[in-house]
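User: I'm preparing a small set of examples for a lab meeting where we compare how different chains pack in three dimensions. I only have the primary sequence for this one, and I'd like the structure in token form so I can line it up with the others. Please keep the answer compact; I'll paste it straight into my notes.
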Amino acid sequence: MNTTSAPQMIEYVNKSLDFTPHDSKFIPGSAKIVTCGISPSGKGALKIIELDREGTKDLYHDLSFRPSGIKCATFGASKLGDGHLAMASYDGTLSLSDITHQNKTDDLFCIKKAHEGIINAVDGIGGTSGSYGAPELVTGGKDGCVKVWDQRQTQPVVVLNSDKASSAPRDCWSVAFGDSYNINRSILAGFDNGDIKLFDLRTSNIVWETNVENGVTSVQFDRPDIQKNKVVVTTLESKFRCYDMRTQHSSDGFAFTSERAHRSTVWVSKFLPQNRDIFLTGGGNGGLNIYKYIYPKNRVGKHRDGSPIGISGSVELLNSRVISTQPIVSFDWSPDRQGLCCLTSMDQTLRVFVITKLEKH
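Assistant: Understood. Below is the structure token output for the 361-residue chain.
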């Protein structure tokens, strides 16, 4: 790690919260951050702040914004300027609210019992990412199902059961849209037993599945609106994998590189929107690691059976810093300002960082 040109992590805001945060997101096209979680009474809490030269300004705070705790949220299916936040709750409710409107509790879209039990993950596409196709949401729940939702319908347009034959399905912990270009669109889902499944929405088939040995805490495509290129998968037991998704072998699947990080669970990973080769991981030790993916000279090789096979690249640690004594549970890059990011940790704190020198990598 070259410290002279390494990205520097500068803390800009450190704000205590009166609820347990589960997710934080920049509102696209603004300097506002929304944080959601669960209040001491078990209700869904939501807070909106705005960054300014003095630090922050509180815009909205409600400890009972939802009847049940909010587990995750996304602006992925919201058009720029709309501020439509999709939220998934502990009681299995999926809702969409315009949080820029004065009456923020009016739902644009609400499905009660979208899942049986808690919804662990949600992702959206067709909005701010500028991808091809209609705005859609994908959710993964404790019931083991992955469901795709169109805001114009009250029933899921696609339901993927991880194990239809099992009486005790595995929890789905993470979901992500990707490969959304032309007429294609795919979903990647990670489960608590280490299973990963890639589902092609155009053909309605599982096109690839594997097991990474530990529970999958997060999955993300480097960019969702292009042909699938690479994916980062983070897991329990201090590990993450970076897959090259361009070449799939019939038996060996996709090539990957595996790394250990944080000496604890790697809870989250996010690619930098302005440079898809840089990504950040957040760990159970309260640490942040910044990595750069380095492509191999040749991304395609020849398998012993004569067919093409992918060749994985490597990852370089650019910098690391422990910023909290508690696990980092959410992280988000600003889509508008390179290096500006927000994160929450289990010490009930929202932090905003400015990460410099990213343009040098």
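A couple of notes for your slides: The mean pLDDT is 92. DSSP finds no helices and 30 strands in the chain.

User: Perfect, thanks.
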